[in-house]
């Protein structure tokens, strides 16, 4: 960790990108985490007619315009997954796979997480349930570990874990062909429940049960309540006020993550507000 940013933005959909533009315009030191492909959901949209000035455009065309805008303003996206964000009082600590970042304020723009937690997942979080295999791999030396992966790219994490654990089970939740180390046992089944008293010891699947010392659930994004401990939720969404402020000082949220309607123009507008609120918060902190 080298420096502290004024604003850290998590998510590179319309809300996150809009926030980044405003952070840049207001000359703040910021970092935006996400995918350089921008929003896969946006790319898949066939036609968008309710985004002012972009009538009849496909999602891919609008994404290209977004990318042109970022390039013109010299904004680059950091392709790192943020696993946890902790409020430290006067700043936030953001834990990525292999390092830590610090920021005075945070804007959450990760979209909505439609995946409900598995039975037992929240109860055993940190007690054998984790979301980053490479981070926690040393804890599982010569132990049995299971990975539930929602994207093919997670195969690399499974292969890495196989060099440390005595046994790795791999449960793919995607349709592409699985190509992992031959030592890894691939199980094509669905998780029903994570079982354990003080720690994970068993997984109940639809068609079988397996004994395991730990399970990593590698979703595209973790729910905001798990990402930021202490964050006030309203069902599946983050609770915010008109300034996009959450219950945690210095933490803001925008886009689908804060609720319906799930519209790109609404997300972009909220990203703008969140950035202005974060800028005001950072300026206030500097005056103290």
UniProtKB/TrEMBL annotation:
Signal peptide: none
Gene3D superfamilies: FAD/NAD(P)-binding domain
EC number from the UniProt entry: 1.8.1.9
InterPro entries: FAD/NAD-bd_sf, FAD/NAD-binding_dom, Ferredoxin-NADP_redctase_2
GO molecular function: thioredoxin-disulfide reductase (NADPH) activity
Keyword Oxidoreductase among UniProt keywords: yes
Entry keywords, A to Z: Flavoprotein, Oxidoreductase
Boundaries of every FAD/NAD(P)-binding domain copy: 5-143
UniProt-recorded name of the protein: Thioredoxin reductase TrxB
Native species: Clostridium saccharobutylicum DSM 13864
Encoding gene per record: trxB
